[in-house]
Amino acid sequence: MARPRRSSFRRKLTVLSVVTSASTLLLAAFLFTANSVRNYRLTLAKQLATEADIIGFTVTPALVFGDEDAARDALAALRAEPQVTAARVFTPEGSVFATYEVADLPGDVPAAPPPASDGRFDYRKGSFELTHLIGGAEHPLGTLYLRADLTELKGRVVRNVEITGAVLVVSLLTAFGIASFLQREISTPILGLAETARAVTVDRNYGVRATTRGSDEIGVLVDAFNEMLDEIQRRDDRLRAANRTLGHRTEELARKNEDVEAFVYIVSHDLRAPLVNLQGFSRELQLSCDTLAQRLAGAPLPAETLAAVRDLTEVEIPSSLRFISASTSKFERLINALLQLSRSGRRELRPEALDMNDLVAATLDSLQRSIEESGAEIVVEPLPNALADSTAVGQLLSNLVTNALRYLQPGRPGRIELGGGSENGGNRYYVKDNGVGIPPAAQSRLFQVFQRFRPDLAEGEGIGLATVKRIVDRHGGRIWAESTEGVGTTFFFTLPALEAVAGDTR
Amino acid sequence: MAVLRSLRRVVGIACLLAVAVAAGSARPAPSEREVEAAFLCSFADFVEWPHADSDAPVKILVLGEDPFGRMLEETARSRPMQTRPIEIHRSRRLEDAARFQMVYISDSERNRIPEILDGLAGRGILTVSDVADFATQGGIIGFVIENKRVRFEINDEAAQRTGLHISSRLLNLARIVRTSPRGGG
Question: pLDDT value at position B18?
């Protein structure tokens, strides 16, 4: 791609020189020829005038004494002048007195003297004509008509054109040679510059440098270009170093993140077995305790002993077992939440065309009991379809609605609104409540794991919003909250729009 | 314009008188006498006299009976080349001829040509006549008729002997003759 441009630049420089030379040469040749023709005309006019004077002088006595033969003889002297092709002498009355004509060049010599003044010199019908009054204009003895042909003039022009053509060819070849040689002075550094620029652009090689030469404008250009390359190279090096560091860090972070997730998964999974044991054996212990109580009821034991044992079996032990049961239940919920969080980060997403209206309806159905218990009013606006993983987005909606239900303002009729719309490059959805709101200080930590702001209001593990953020992040969306304490909170999140993605894949 | 036209007419008439018009001309041919008168006046333009003021008038004497009449004065006035003015005189006496540059010897003096030529010899006088064999008898210019046209013979030897220089352009038109021994004797 760079090749034809290169040659065209060189060619342009050469053509510039050659065309300039050719133009000046042609102009000079034209002027030279024009001047030569003009000079020839002037010379011919002068020559013919002299000729006419001589002939007129010679032919005068012949006219005076009416001797036509003598006049013809006088005219015959014109044989010595090859350019004169015809001559004729007229008497003052206008009749032909004597004629001279070159035999092989017959022309229509005028039968009457041309009505003209003395010394008239004219170009007519391819020849020059001269009219001369013999004996002066005052007492003319007759009129002499002379005609000179243009063969020599034509020959002169042709010779001029030939010489000019030869000079032109030689000059142009010389000019071409010199221009081809001299244009290097300009084109070589510029082509070098172009070559360097090409190497930089195509090969991304910022290490190359254009050859420096001279201190003229091109030299300045080359120097400036090289300095620019230096700067670019420095920046490029810094950028590469920064990218490398960043890459390492990202890898490191990803690895650590994986470790954490694996750890969370393993811990929660492995904690399950002991928890189940704990729950199972607690129940066993309760049964054993009940059996012990029945056995002791009919046993022959002293009354105080019996009372003390009964206190143990009926009050102390069941009370402890209830504490154990409550704790294990809480423990179980915590583990389940952690597993959910872990799954939301590990499970492979399967994006599909998602009818958000259906999904919201299903989610609300599954939360029916909580909603009824809270007595909140749920409002659902029509929602645009998204391209997302059905299970994950279901989890997301469920978490947000549960969250809203949990933090409703006590003593105020709850109202939860779901809606959304299209915006540039995606869809935006929101879940709006009129709950207690979030204190400003807490808003920045809202989506972090294990953050709880109002533990007094509701049970929770501080994992729900972290899960929500992770789901949105993995869909390439954003999530944020706008909240006023005591008025309510609105969670916004974005998901890929169905149309936009369909458009991209096409 | 009118002046130019009248001038042209004058010139035209003059030339009509001055030259033998070429064959084919519609005008009536001039008589031999008219042609001779025109030639006589024109000779003055082609001859140089010794010790003569070139601007002074050329004096012509008609010796003997005048065959021209007023024609000669008119011709002298209107001839084509007027390098010098011309004065015309007439006389029958040979003695009067000495102070003239040109003498026309009339046919009436035919019988005393040798006497007249002897009388004018060495005085630088151009002698002209239409007498037969005038030039061969020792005269300088003699009119002859050739093919019904007036021509002239010139005896250049006689002219040089008397100190006259006749232009070669005039000699070109003439038949050159010498004084014949019998005529000169």
Answer: 45
What are the backbone angles phi and psi of residue A298, rounded to the nearest 5°? Answer: -100, 5
How many other CB atoms are found less than 10 A from the CB of residue A95? 18
Give the closest-approach CA distance of A137 to chain B in angstroms. Answer: 11
**Within its chain, how far is the Cα of B144 from the centroid?**
12
Q: CB distance A65–B173 less than 8 Å? A: yes
pLDDT at B27 over 60: no
* Alpha carbon distance B40, B100 (integer Å): 14
Strand B126-129 relative to strand B141-146, pairing = parallel
A93 touches chain B (CB under 8 A): yes
CB pairs under 8 A between A and B: 67
| Over residues B80-105, mean pLDDT | 86
Chain A positions touching B22 (Cβ under 8 A) are 66, 68, 91, 95-97
Separation between Cα atoms, residue A196 and residue A382, nearest integer Å: 60
pLDDT over threshold 70, residue A500? no
Alpha helices in A65-145 (DSSP H): 68-76
Q: Is A403 left (phi over 0), alpha (psi -120 to 50) or beta?
A: alpha
Question: Does the beta-carbon distance from B80 to A95 stay under 8 Å?
Answer: no
Residue A231, Cβ neighbours under 10 Å: how many? 11
How far apart (Å, rounded) are the C-alpha atoms in residues A380 and A364? 10
Query: Sign (positive/negative) of CA torsion A337, A341, A346, A351?
Result: positive
A67 contacts B173? CB cut-off 8 A:
yes
Please state, in angstroms and rounded to a whole number, the distance separating the CA atoms of residues B175 and B152.
7
CA dihedral A128, A133, A137, A139 (to 10 degrees): -170
| Chain B residues lying within 8 Å of A66, measured CB to CB | 19-22, 35, 149
Q: How confident is the model at residue A103 (pLDDT cuts 50, 70, 90)?
A: low
Quick check: A345 and A261 in contact, CB under 8 A?
yes
CA neighbor of B47 nearest in space, from A64, A92, A142: A64
Q: Judge whether B150 and B143 are in contact, CB under 8 Å.
A: yes
Residues B84 and B54: beta-carbon distance below 8 Å: yes
Distances (CA, A) of A303 to A291, A296, A308, A309: 19, 11, 9, 10
Complex ipTM value: 0.74
Is residue A104 helix, strand or coil? coil
Tokens 């003021």 map to which residue? B53
Interface residues of chain B, partner chain A, Cβ below 8 Å: 11-12, 15-16, 18-22, 24-25, 27, 35, 39, 42, 45-46, 80-82, 149, 151-152, 167, 169-170, 172-173
Using pLDDT thresholds of 50, 70 and 90, give the confidence band for residue B25: very low
| Alpha-carbon span A28 to A50, nearest angstrom | 32
Indicate the DSSP class of residue A453. Answer: S
Distance, in Å, from the CA atom of A315 to the CA atom of A311, rounded to the nearest integer, reads: 5
Nearest CA in chain A to B35: A65
Q: Which residues of chain A are within 8 Å of residue B20 when distances are taken between CB atoms?
A: 65-66
Q: How far apart are CA B134 and CA B138, in angstroms?
A: 7
| Nearest to A392, CA basis, from A463, A474, A477, A476 | A474
Give Cα A189 to chain centroid, integer Å.
28
The full length of chain B comes to 185
Asked if residues A389 and A352 have their Cβ atoms less than 8 Å apart, the reply is: yes
